[in-house]
Automatic annotation (TrEMBL):
UniProt family annotation: Belongs to the UDP-glucose/GDP-mannose dehydrogenase family.
SUPFAM superfamilies for the chain: 6-phosphogluconate dehydrogenase C-terminal domain-like (SSF48179), NAD(P)-binding Rossmann-fold domains (SSF51735), UDP-glucose/GDP-mannose dehydrogenase C-terminal domain (SSF52413)
Highest taxon in the source lineage: Bacteria
Residues bound to substrate: 152-155, 207, 252-256, 260, 326
EC number of this enzyme: 1.1.1.22
GO biological process, one term: UDP-glucuronate biosynthetic process
Record keyword Oxidoreductase present: yes
Binding-site positions, NAD(+): 30, 35, 86, 122, 155, 266, 333
EC class: oxidoreductase
UniProt source species: Erythrobacter litoralis (strain HTCC2594)
Lineage of source species: Bacteria, Pseudomonadati, Pseudomonadota, Alphaproteobacteria, Sphingomonadales
Keyword annotations of the record: NAD, Oxidoreductase
UniProt-recorded name of the protein: UDP-glucose 6-dehydrogenase
Length: 436
């Protein structure tokens, strides 16, 4: 089957490459000429493990191609995916649907055969109806259906998540949409990935509800971690203890510096806006958003406390290890590192950072932070070493060397990747999250 993927960003490119790998004939479309040129040269626009090899293999096999020409790209495609960005709209936090609507108009104008138009972008409830109206208004003579098919992949694990999903959600209002989507996902279906067919609006809401629920789970355990610090508990044991209850589940209970990334912050905010529009408050999510936002700066203050308080911290040097919002990505969007660095520099602390993939993108976001070539260079002369992101490269630091290089043996581990007893045995002041 020919599939067109409009938008060759994170979701579009990963989904397109994976569909091609399953044997479909895929054209990825993007209006950004330089992105398409680079893809032709085998250069990926994002860092995602395994993506370059997957793209390369499928291009060579003749199943994956790239173009800036939407009309040509969608010709003959039975399924046309919309996978463009829906960022937070400046000023009000609503999802900005400019790109989605633009693509819908273009698709409507250029449709040359019967097709299903699939929104893979995260879009607020009711967007499918609007996309349908836009395409119909373009006056197409061809049969079309608009389907919602949200994507649940995680950065850094995107290919695995796409190929072995917990579930595939398809929101469709008619049999044509259902028939084509069954064909699109047949390879995964046969892999026994469950497919949930539902209404378009339910499907659109499922994406937001899933992300908001996960953000809530993280925020919940983060607050339990704070309480553990006060009462003398261990948040990892608490997480394990509650997670063994099948109704709660063990995943997404790692306490840390607060969630970031391209999805949770923007999607929780957009959900709040939808709820406001429909006069149906989601107070739990309101609390989650506020709590997570203030947590990021609170982590900066935690580091200042480890330096001996505001007065003592002024003029001291802190090494930040890890800047991206999570490991195995170069994505800095809403990363806690930004707020942490800001809190520190506001307090007159000199910050030096190292990240395996994120430094280029981080530089303009944190102009007052110096970037080091590697972990040990950052650590040299530091009064405190802070692990912000749990990259594997930070899991086995040579603690003797760290102690030798640093001005003071202070380790603030915001991801709980070290055992307190091990680090303290080496003579460090060790501060972590929810463990005393
Ligand atoms: C998320 C969803 O997981 C995915 O299904 C959706 O499609 C997009 O948003 P992603 O943003 O790539 O994916 O990363 P994820 O691994 O979910 O982590 C999000 C944030 O939560 C990160 O900042 C991470 O550090 C944090 N997190 C995650 C925790 O603090 N604790 C956890 O237990 C899990």
């Amino acid at each position: 089957m020919k599939i067109a993927m409009v938008g060759s960003g994170y979701v579009g490119l990963v989904s397109g490459a994976c569909f091609a790998d399953f044997g479909h004939d895929v054209v990825c479309i993007d209006k950004d000429q330089s992105k398409i040129d680079r893809l032709h040269d085998g250069i990926m626009p994002i860092y995602e493990p395994g993506l370059d090899a997957l793209v390369d293999a499928n291009v060579k096999a003749g199943r994956l191609s790239f173009t800036t020409d939407l009309g040509e790209g969608i010709e003959g495609a039975k399924a046309i995916f919309i996978a463009v960005g829906t960022p937070s709209r400046r000023g009000d936090g609503h999802a900005d649907l400019t790109f989605v609507h633009e693509v819908a108009r273009e698709v409507g104008k250029n449709l040359a055969n019967d097709a299903v138009i699939v929104t893979k972008s995260t879009v607020p409830v009711g967007t499918g109806d609007e996309v349908e109206r836009i395409i119909a208004d373009a006056g197409t003579k061809h049969r079309f259906a608009v389907v919602s098919n949200p994507e649940f992949l995680r950065e850094g694990a995107a290919i695995g998540d796409f190929k072995r999903p917990d579930r595939i959600v398809i929101g469709t209002e008619d049999d044509f949409g259902r028939e084509i989507m069954t064909e699109v996902y047949r390879p995964l279906y046969l892999n026994e990935s469950p497919i949930l067919f539902t209404s378009r609006r339910s499907s659109e809401l499922i994406k937001y509800a899933a992300n908001a629920f996960l953000a809530t789970k993280i925020t919940f355990i983060n607050e339990m971690a704070d309480l553990c610090e006060k009462v003398g508990g261990n948040v990892q044991d608490v997480a394990r203890g509650i997670g063994m209850d099948g109704r709660i589940g063990p995943k997404f209970l790692n306490a840390g510096p607060g969630y970031g990334g391209s999805c949770f912050p923007k999607d929780t905010l957009a959900l709040l806006k939808t709820a406001e529009d429909y006069d149906s408050p989601v107070r739990i999510i309101e609390a989650v958003v506020k709590t997570n936002e203030s947590r990021k700066r609170a982590m900066g203050r935690k580091v200042i406390d480890a330096l001996g308080g505001m007065d003592a911290a002024r003029g001291k040097k802190v090494a930040l290890l890890g800047l991206t919002f999570k490991p195995n990505t170069d994505d800095m969007r809403d990363s806690p590192a930004i707020a942490i660095a800001q809190t520190l520099t506001d307090a007159g602390v000199n910050v030096v950072a190292y990240d395996p993939e994120g430094m280029e993108i981080a530089k303009p976001l944190m102009p007052e932070v110096a970037m080091a070539e590697n972990s040990y260079e950052a650590i040299e002369g530091a009064d405190a070493v802070v692990i912000v992101t749990e990259w594997d490269a930070f899991r086995a630091l040579d603690l003797d060397r760290v102690k030798e290089l640093a001005a003071a043996p202070v380790l603030v581990d915001l991801r709980n990747i070290y055992a307190p007893s091990d680090v303290r045995a080496k003579g460090f002041d060790y501060v972590s999250i929810g463990r005393v």
